[in-house]
Amino acid sequence: MSPKEEIYTRHAAKGSDRGKILAEIMNAEGKPEVLDDILVLDVSSANFAGIICASFLAEFGAEVIKIEPADGDPARQITPFGVTVKGVGIPFMFEGRNKRYMTLDIKNNPEDRKIFAKLAKKAAVVIESFPPGEMDSWGIGYRQLSVDNPGLVYIALSAYGQYTDKAKESANMPDTDITSQAGSGLPAQMGGTPNEPEPNSWPLRGGMWAGWYVSGLSAVLGGTVALIHRQNTGQGQMVDVAGMDAYSSMVGMPATIGYTWEKARPRIGVLDFILYPYGHWKCKDGFVAIAAPRDHDFRALLKILGLWEQEDDWRYSSDRIPDILEQALHLHKIIEGKTLQFTSDELVKMALNYSKRSARSKWRGGGVPIVMKLMTPEEAMKNKQWQIRKAFQEVEDEKLGKYTISANFVKMSESPPRVKWVSSEIGKDNEYISKKYLND
Amino acid sequence: MEDYFSYTAKLFNPDEANQKPEALKGIRVLDFSHVIFGPIAARLLADYGAEVIKLELPFYGDLWRPATYWGKYWKHSNPIWHNITKNKYFLSVNLQLKQSKELIYKMAEGADVVIENFAPGTADAWGIGYEKISQINPKIVFLSCSTYGQFGPMRYFPGWDLLAQGASGVLTLNGYPDTDIYYKLPDYVGDFVPGNFGALAILMALYHRKKTGKGQYIDMAQTEGLMRLLYHYTYHSVTKEAIGRTGNTDPTMMPASIFKTADDKFLALACATADQFKNFAGAIGKAEWATDPRFASTLERLKPENAKALTAMAVDWIKSKSCADIVKLADEKGFPAAEVADDYSIAYDEWRRKRGSVVLFKDDVYGNLVIAGPSAQLSGTPSRTKWLARPLGYHNRLVLKKFLGMSEEEIQDLEKKKVIGTFDDRPGLKPPVYYNLSEDPIYNYGKEVRK
After folding, report:
1. ipTM of the complex
2. Which of A171, A322, B302, B419 could form a disulfide with B414 if both were Cys (CB 3.0 to 4.6 A apart)?
3. pLDDT category, B448, cuts 50, 70, 90?
4. Largest alpha-carbon pair distance within chain B?
5. A-chain residues within 8 Å CB-CB of B193?
6. Is there a single domain that holds both residue A356 and residue A404?
7. Is B95's Cβ below 8 Å from some Cβ in A?
8. Is the residue at A264 inside a domain?
9. Which residue on chain B is closest to A88 by alpha carbon?
10. What residues does each domain of chain B span?
11. Angle separating helix axes B323-333 and B274-283, nearest 10 degrees
12. Which fold has domain B11-228+376-439?
């Protein structure tokens, strides 16, 4: 894009047109939407995994109706420090993408359940997060809805899933992000080493909704597989996501390591259990992330930092894997001694200058040590890369005003996802929905 | 009416899963990718029935083949790589030779999906990028994976999961406030989450292709995938402030922390709603909390000063009870609580085995291995495991004979010219030393083997 674009690969396209052409191809405006023939009913309650799953379908063009009681989904109040705009919490605003809002109290009102069942006849997807079996006991579960609508894809979210004895025994336990993280083992791998003072040595919570977003993503992926099967055969099915295992199943490592090693990994602080150096270091003006895990990357890093005398130290020549914590921390300190002498910009430049030469020479072994300034979310928003890629979008809610969201999470040349509008008002589309779907 | 859980037990019965139809049967995928991000997108498609042909360089193979936890191998393979690359066909082709490219072009004619995650520009420079492949097969769905995307001034920056976590802001959210220590999210979430996004985009493109007949190009940047998970940007745009690090407390619910119990276990407990809080307060004999003006309303409870007071009271109660007692109470009364699971408990918990989220898989080459099941269970077209990872070049014969109709003589000629190849003696690439490949009917596909 810029004429002074830095090239760190041997294979950059000739001329700088490729970037410009791609940026144009990936423009969403006027493009068809994949799911424009799909109606989704989201009756999830106090569960962002459901809301997130619905958002993804809405971004790909589905008509998504968020159904909630007149006092609103309690998820509206799940918000950092209780901050709201006119009563609407920040995460609910963030996920309020391309949705319709309808009020029905299916939990308490049997009449409303009938209206829901009528809508569900026309729906391709239902998303719910009530205790397993509750929708079924109201006569509007998958078992009943699929009689009139065999093509229905029914996505259920819960803590322990819809089947097994455990699911039955723990059916009343609601699903939240932090319990999903814990049940899936994420915090067990985060936090300080065992010899650090409490609570640093405790398992640490991931500082964003790793549980709920992984559940929501799992649900939409499973749901889309089901939609493809429906497209091919007309058959629907049930999709069951359990917060207590979604993360551990997505990353897969805990089960296999627990079995082959016959114990759990200890917490190793800022180190990584496979790659090294692979983490972040303090520098003059903040922190840098450094990844130089391959042998040639590591050696390049030593050269850049003026640490070449460490190269033939037995501890690093072939075994930088931090299974001996002391040894790994020793090298960590040595590297820190150097990074502290430079600013993040200087370190980034040093690494990139080396990599550029490395990419063009076949004698340097291709070592590419990667150094990057650690960004907070707030700093990331200002980065030009994401402005050009439209990763952030300023949106305006009729009632709540303007705010910024991250959007356009994947670029597609023919049928990209997009955010057309945001809204959050309870019951806003009651009339529209009854005219469009309930008139017959 | 039949009990709900006996109905669902039949609907999802893991014993019958392998006989059910596969949603992506007939979809053929060429997987040029390596490490985790691209391979996971391809594996998810394979789990649902797609034929995924993974291409690797002879004698090198995927960079991640030998990258196991703390250098620990299992039967001369990398145990965690079995999860990342199961259900695929392993073809080893030397990309630098003209004849190899002809092979790839021939495969591209019949393929539906291509996945690559080289540095942006590399696939095109090698003549296997979207530009070339879409000329051969205009209906192709082509996914390019990278850290910063295929366009924009940072596109040529190299990256890993760590850099995506660093560039999106995810990394700076983990840790305790007022300290100078941050932690990255573990287990390469920064690869697995974008890998799932990549697979989602491919599925959407396949759905679109069925309707319109059109293929397309997909540009998935792992940093943007992680950005989609942060409402922190919206918080900043509304309040001009940052959420920052909040240690073990989730600032969106109250209480919501990881606590230590009387028996020195770690437990996450949360109340996301007024109802859940009422259940919790009642369960611990503090029903009056639910009417305390500081705590009764969810938004009041979340205010930092009230949250602090309530967390302190929760800490006191939790450290007087055993973990199992609290979880039992939570089940009965309906509030969220869970012990912090670890590798060992995840591998051995009975409920996970019964659910199929952890599976003891019996493999023809490697024998028994515990691997993760899918993160979403489908009743009609479930994800399944058919085989684990394989040594480098294991399916050369099968792919070339079955999918490309080549003869044994042609294949031997390719071997002689080093167009295709297999493993060397390094663990991660080779089969278990005691495994006799000469008797393996798949490795020797189309040849007579003695058993």
Report:
1. 0.98
2. B419
3. confident
4. 83
5. 213-214, 217, 250
6. no
7. no
8. no
9. B299
10. 11-228+376-439
11. 130
12. Rossmann fold (3.40.50)
